[in-house]
Amino acid sequence: MTIRVLLVDDQPLLRTGFRMILEAESDLVVVGEAGDGQQALEQVRALQPDVVLMDIRMPRMDGVEATRRIAGPGRDGPAKVLVLTTFDLDEYVVEALRAGASGFLLKDVPAEELVQAIRVVADGAAMLAPSVTRRLLDMYATKLPSGEEAPPQALGALTEREVEVLRLVARGLSNAEIAAELFVSETTVKTHVGHVLTKLQLRDRVQAAVYAYESGLVRPGSM
């Protein structure tokens, strides 16, 4: 299956570089480019890409708002958003993840990792490396509940094992790693993750991780 990719960045030279990397792969095709968030929305409607490589800081409409309109709550289109930025994790990237992005990478990522991230996101999974979850958790440290507040009611809908799986997802573990940690099959883990996403009305693992931080389920120093 060919994965259709839309490149969104306000720097033409970077778009050209990304295009060269991606089009060297037999299963990836760049269907279009956009220089800002507004153009990205128009291209998504016209070209129906599978994955949007999204810069954050752009003129007219930034990547956060564009991500929200492409992949945010209530959006059921097929396009997944993979955030690419020259900046390390900051409030803009956190907002993009909350807006519906399926992953986050720095622009200096090796070519093979970029290609693999696109395949992972296109397959419906999330690209959230443990190093990113660590910085995400550190960023939320001053905003997290103190632990004295009651947990969100929605967590009560999860079984004990589903809560355990959610904690491990928030730590950035893959399904295979969670399976090894809990001594269960990878298929069982996939089932648990699916139940968690459905019960909490979350789109993917990235939003599940952010939910775990915001609800206080995962706390600084617990990783």
How is this structure best summarized?
With 223 residues, the chain is an alpha/beta fold.
Structural commentary:
This is Response regulator transcription factor. The modification 4-aspartylphosphate is found at residue 55. The radius of gyration is 17 Å and the shape is globular. Helix 3 (63-71) runs parallel beside helix 4 and helix 8 packs across helix 9. The longest helix is centred in the last third of the chain and has 15 residues, at 186-200. 48% of the residues lie in helices and 12% in strands. It has a five-stranded parallel sheet, with helices on both faces. With 223 residues, it is of the alpha/beta class. It has helices spanning 12-22, 37-47, 63-71, 91-99, 111-122, 130-140, 160-170, 175-182, 186-200, 205-215, and strands at residues 3-8, 28-34, 51-54, 80-85, 103-106. The model is unreliable at 144-149 (pLDDT under 50).
**Poorly predicted spans:** 144-149
Whole-Å distance between the termini?
Answer: 37 Å
* Mean of pLDDT: 82
Structural class: alpha/beta
The beta-strand count equals: 5
Multimeric status of the protein: single chain
List the helices and strands and how they pair.
Blueprint lengths: L2 E6 L3 H11 L5 E7 L2 H11 L3 E4 L8 H9 L8 E6 L5 H9 L3 E4 L4 H12 L7 H11 L19 H11 L4 H8 L3 H15 L4 H11 L8
Parallel strand pairs: 1-2, 1-3, 3-4, 4-5
Helix pairs in contact: 2-3, 3-4, 6-10, 7-9, 7-10, 8-9
Keywords: DNA-binding, Phosphoprotein, Transcription, Transcription regulation
Pfam families: GerE (PF00196), Response_reg (PF00072)
Protein name: Response regulator transcription factor
